[in-house]
């Protein structure tokens, strides 16, 4: 994925992070966030480069070492302040090398001078060669006595080692392939580049392990030098011309050794770039690449030096993916060549130094503060706020609250008032002062309504004036919104009396406004002025009136408002009154409803349903009420009530010609014949008459029914169909006049015969069941009577009352024991006569065969 180039102006500002274009034709705001931020190294560096030009630089975690074209070496702190200065040579310093401890430094110059010395010790090496020395590298562990080694490179690569007598001896590692122009020492491996390619030397085995040839031999090696960089102890990155190679040093298997070095190099990634490489540095698994750019002018069609680029790329086996690309406007970039740029880096802090003759720029990874800066610059406030919340422990320059306030202001400026108000909840939190400030700000722009739903209502609580101000705003323009706030806000947030007065003032203009009246009732409720609230609710016929009465126990206040409650909702009113009889008596309710009998009936009817006896004193009154307002429930009432006067009820029913009720009352009063007569004469309903006769189960009623029906063929048909199970049908059939035409007579006779057959079958079935049960019980009785009966010393003869068993068991004796458990000596019983040989228990005096008639005779 190729990202757009971000042009960074570094020509006019000295120390600030510069991330904007000065080229108006190329100034396009990129939505891609930069990966690095840039800062010009100033202070002492500015002074140096005003009179001199940078030629090389090396970086340590604690300080920087800068070499110049006038042969000076400066030690700088990370802010660019000069801490030490060394006059090494009158000509250009080609390279500076530091060991890992930062205590020893090696310097080489264009006039062939080489110096290696301790920054804090007196040890020093001086040598002047007869040719320019282009490179120098001290052993990374030079501080150790066993590692006093360094290499230099001009026409040949020399290794200098200090012997045990503190003398330095040199050996040639390589020569004959042109000038040595780049060297990097890591661990036990030294990598260098000459005109032909890159070599790697193992200082431990004293073997050269590889040769990586140069790809593009058409480029002058002095103008387009090779860039070397160790990513770790075994990974070397090579950049030369437009080619990048990533090499991995690996151990050779013992079976492959023969005469070969113990290590070999494998190229794990290789790709081409668009521009010429001036420097490389690792960044995690990615690469930072400094490129020298040449472009063609559209006007003159001539090549010119463009801004150098710093790219972050993701290496792949045969290509790469560009992550970001920044074009840097360094001083004098129009006159620089590829060899004039260097890229140095500090591994510990991921700092990258872009060195050019007239400028030193520091690139560093953007932290969370920088990310938030970019989001704020792009007006992505919500993302900035989220990023700050996630990283609140690591950010240093930003505060969540400041970002949030800026976000609210931004939304207000855009006119998104509702979103701004909603965000206040999260951003302002429990800061009451900020809440009040924002409310006043919303008031200034006329948007108090927007913030009202989100105001805190508990923790924190704002000043009452704030809430009152918003309520007044709604009261002036939005009654419904005002009512909603009164419902939702606790009554202790504001001065209730102030708001009540304001509502009453508005009601003077619109006295029938239901919304305001309802809201006023709610305000009265908050103020515990329940009487006024109840009066308004009843006027409005509002559903909450019953809830208000229950919640605040206002039963004493409604004793004179029962009719109003019933008129509003009789069902709920009756239920409430009956549930609270202890607070409002039945007598009081009935008296209050005296002028509204329809409500009186509803109340007494529900009372009767709950308890048939509680309102017994009103049962006589209820007869008239049922007759007037609820006849369907009159008959059930008459049946269930045991307290209503039957004569009064009969009188009312007869006056109103309520036949069914009159029939019931007549039958209940014992006048069944009059009741039956009314059914037949008034209702002309034979089925009802038959049903009535069945219920009464009176033969005389059946006789009256037959006599009444004998000259009415439809009645005869009804009787024939239903009389069979109660009266002998022959009685009816004999009385039918000859020649009378009776509808469906055949069917009726068939039904009579079927009913008779059914009765016969039922009787036979019952007989079988009875016989089977009798036999079963007889067998059970026989088994029971066959069981033995215990006789002991405690039993006595029921006749002589002496013990049944003799005192002398040796003497012969005999006794008679009946199944009724009575015992007699045989001699105490009367001798049975010839006419009645059976013996019976004298006690039970059984006259027929029964449980006591059988005997058990015992002899000895």
Q: What layout of secondary structure does this protein have?
A:
Layout: E1 6-9, E2 36-40, H1 44-51, E3 54-59, E4 64-68, E5 72-76, E6 82-87, E7 93-98, E8 104-109, E9 113-118, E10 124-128, E11 135-138, E12 149-153, E13 156-162, E14 168-175, E15 182-186, E16 189-193, E17 197-202, E18 207-213, E19 227-232, E20 235-240, E21 243-251, E22 263-272, E23 276-283, E24 286-292, E25 294-296, E26 303-305, E27 309-315, E28 320-329, E29 342-346, E30 351-356, E31 359-365, H2 368-377, H3 381-390, H4 400-414, H5 417-428, H6 432-444, H7 448-451, H8 464-477, H9 479-488, H10 496-509, H11 514-526, H12 530-540, H13 544-552, H14 562-568, H15 570-579, H16 586-592, H17 597-610, H18 619-629, H19 634-640, H20 646-655, H21 659-668, H22 672-683, H23 686-696, H24 699-709, H25 713-722, H26 729-735, H27 745-785, E32 814-818, E33 823-825, E34 855-859
Parallel strand pairs: 1-28
Antiparallel strand pairs: 2-31, 3-4, 4-5, 5-6, 7-8, 8-9, 9-10, 11-12, 12-13, 13-14, 15-16, 16-17, 17-18, 19-20, 20-21, 21-22, 23-24, 24-27, 25-26, 27-28, 29-30, 30-31, 32-33, 32-34
Helix pairs in contact: 2-3, 3-4, 4-5, 8-9, 8-10, 9-11, 10-11, 11-12, 12-13, 14-15, 15-17, 17-18, 18-20, 19-21, 20-21, 21-22, 22-23, 22-24, 25-27
């Amino acid at each position: 994925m190729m990202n757009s180039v971000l042009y960074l102006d570094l020509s006019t500002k000295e120390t600030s992070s510069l991330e904007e274009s000065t080229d108006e034709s190329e100034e396009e705001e990129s939505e891609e966030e930069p990966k690095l931020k840039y800062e010009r190294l100033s202070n002492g560096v500015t002074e140096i480069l005003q009179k001199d030009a940078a030629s090389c630089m090396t970086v340590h975690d604690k300080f920087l070492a800068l070499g110049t074209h006038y042969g000076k070496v400066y030690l700088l702190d990370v802010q660019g302040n000069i801490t030490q200065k060394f006059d090494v040579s009158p000509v250009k310093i080609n390279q500076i090398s530091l060991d890992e401890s930062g205590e020893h430094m090696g310097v080489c110059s264009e006039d062939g001078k080489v110096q290696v010395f301790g920054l804090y010790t007196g040890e020093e090496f001086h040598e002047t060669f007869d040719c320019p020395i282009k490179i120098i590298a001290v052993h990374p562990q030079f501080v150790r006595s066993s590692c006093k080694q360094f290499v230099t490179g001009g026409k040949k690569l020399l290794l200098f080692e200090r012997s045990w007598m503190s003398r330095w001896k040199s050996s040639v590692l390589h020569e004959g392939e042109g000038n040595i122009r780049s060297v990097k020492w890591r661990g036990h491996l030294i990598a260098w580049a000459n005109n032909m390619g890159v070599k790697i030397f193992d200082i431990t085995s004293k073997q050269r392990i590889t040769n990586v040839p140069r790809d593009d031999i058409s480029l002058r090696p002095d103008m387009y030098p090779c860039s070397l960089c160790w990513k770790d102890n075994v990974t070397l990155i090579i950049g030369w011309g437009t080619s990048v190679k990533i090499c991995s040093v690996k151990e050779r298997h013992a079976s492959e050794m023969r005469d070969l070095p113990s290590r070999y190099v494998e190229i794990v990634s290789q790709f081409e770039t668009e521009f010429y490489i001036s420097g490389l540095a690792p960044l995690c698994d990615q690469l930072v690449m400094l490129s020298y750019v040449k472009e063609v002018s559209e006007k003159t069609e001539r090549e010119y030096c463009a801004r150098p680029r710093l790219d972050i790329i993701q290496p792949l086996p045969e290509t790469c993916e560009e992550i970001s690309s920044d074009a840097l406007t360094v001083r004098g970039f129009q006159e620089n060549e590829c060899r004039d740029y260097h890229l140095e880096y500090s591994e510990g802090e991921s700092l990258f130094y872009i060195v050019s003759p007239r400028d030193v720029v520091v690139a560093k990874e953007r932290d969370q503060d920088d990310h938030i800066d970019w989001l704020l610059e792009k007006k992505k406030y919500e993302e900035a706020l989220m990023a700050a919340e996630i990283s609140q422990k690591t950010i240093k320059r930003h505060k969540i609250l400041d970002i949030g306030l800026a976000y609210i202001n931004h939304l207000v400026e855009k006119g998104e008032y509702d979103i701004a108000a909603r965000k206040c909840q999260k951003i302002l939190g429990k800061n009451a002062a900020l809440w009040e400030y924002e409310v006043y700000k919303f008031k200034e722009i006329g948007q108090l309504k927007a913030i009202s739903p989100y105001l805190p209502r508990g923790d924190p609580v704002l000043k009452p004036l704030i809430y009152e101000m918003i309520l007044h705003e709604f009261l002036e323009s939005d009654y419904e919104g005002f009512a909603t706030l009164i419902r939702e806000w606790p009554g202790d947030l504001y001065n209730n009396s102030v708001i009540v007065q304001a509502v009453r003032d508005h009601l003077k203009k619109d006295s029938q406004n239901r919304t305001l009246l309802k809201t006023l009732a709610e305000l009265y409720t908050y103020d515990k002025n329940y009487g006024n609230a109840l009066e308004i609710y009843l006027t409005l016929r509002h559903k909450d009136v019953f809830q208000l009465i229950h919640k605040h126990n206002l039963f004493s206040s409604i004793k004179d408002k029962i009719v109003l409650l019933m008129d509003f909702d009789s069902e709920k009113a009756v239920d409430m009154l009956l549930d609270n009889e202890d607070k409002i008596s039945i007598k009081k309710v009935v008296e209050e409803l005296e002028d509204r009998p329809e409500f009186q009936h509803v109340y007494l009817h529900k009372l009767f349903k709950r308890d048939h006896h509680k309102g017994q004193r009103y049962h006589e009154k209820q007869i008239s009420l049922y007759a007037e307002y609820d006849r369907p429930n009159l008959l059930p009432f008459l049946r269930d009530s045991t307290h209503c006067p039957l004569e009064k009820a009969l009188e009312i029913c007869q006056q109103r010609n309520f036949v069914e009720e009159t029939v019931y009352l007549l039958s209940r009063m014992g006048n069944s014949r009059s009741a039956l007569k009314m059914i037949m004469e008034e209702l002309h309903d034979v089925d009802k008459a038959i049903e009535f006769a069945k219920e009464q189960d009176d033969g005389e009623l059946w006789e009256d029914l037959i006599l009444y029906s004998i000259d009415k063929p439809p009645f005869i048909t009804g009787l024939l169909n239903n009389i069979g199970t109660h009266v002998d049908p022959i009685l009816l059939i004999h009385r039918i006049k000859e020649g009378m035409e009776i509808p469906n007579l055949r069917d009726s006779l068939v039904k009579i015969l079927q009913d008779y057959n059914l009765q016969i079958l039922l009787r036979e079935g019952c007989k079988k069941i009875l016989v089977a049960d009798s036999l079963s019980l007889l067998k059970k009785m026989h088994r029971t009577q066959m069981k033995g009966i215990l006789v002991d010393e405690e039993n006595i003869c029921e006749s002589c009352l002496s013990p049944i068993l003799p005192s002398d068991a040796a003497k012969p004796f005999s006794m008679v024991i009946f199944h009724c458990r009575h015992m007699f000596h045989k001699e105490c019983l009367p001798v049975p006569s010839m006419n009645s040989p059976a013996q019976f228990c004298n006690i039970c005096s059984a006259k027929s065969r029964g449980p006591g008639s059988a005997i058990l005779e015992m002899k000895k």
